[in-house]
Amino acid sequence: MIRKNPSGDLPVIHESAFVDPTAIICGKVFIGENVFIGPYAVIRADEVDDSGNMEPIIIGANSNIQDGVVIHSKSGARVLIGEHTSIAHRSIVHGPCVVGDNVFIGFNSVLFNCVVGKRCVVRHNSVVEGCELPDGFHIPSTTNIHADSDLSKIEQVGFREEDFSEDVAQTNINLVKGYKKLQNEF
């Protein structure tokens, strides 16, 4: 469902993107080329700050927002999802938040008030909040990061994790093409 927010903002979705009919896209949201938005995802840009202003939620080209993902923002803060980035099933991205290019966010992970650098991998069931992950970091499954000081225990991403992220992104680009073809059959 594509709908306006109370401020009257309507999502802008590139014609090559695929948004599953069960997803809800609301408000000041910009979805780039070849993006895949999976079933039951909710992307809502509807809150304003104390001045009545709102930053957008932007999802970069060739990224995928998988089943049940929630992207929202506190008090109109910006959320930026880079290009070729995968946000896996049931994750929550709550702004303010910036997620770089070629990033993988694993199942059930939570990002809040953080910056995730390019080529990072945040594995399943992890929490990243209140910090900035430098480019190329690997957060193991079930890790909780609540401050920049917690980063000293994190190792750099190896080629295996980067290859996995690229494979997930490419798989979902192919899904966009397949689902776009199917849209014409209904």
UniProtKB/TrEMBL annotation:
N-terminal signal peptide = none
PROSITE patterns attached to this UniProt entry: HEXAPEP_TRANSFERASES
CDD domains reported for this sequence: LbH_gamma_CA (cd00710)
Q: Which InterPro entries match?
A: CA_gamma_LbH, Gamma-CA, Hexapep, Hexapep_transf_CS, Trimer_LpxA-like_sf
User: Could you tell me the superkingdom of the organism this chain comes from?
Assistant: Bacteria
* SUPFAM superfamilies tied to this protein: Trimeric LpxA-like enzymes (SSF51161)
Question: Which keywords appear in this protein's UniProt record, sorted alphabetically?
Answer: Acyltransferase, Repeat, Transferase
GO function terms (MF aspect): acyltransferase activity
Q: Which family does it belong to?
A: Belongs to the gamma-class carbonic anhydrase family.
Q: What is this protein called?
A: Carbonate dehydratase
Q: Which organism is it from?
A: Sulfuriferula plumbiphila
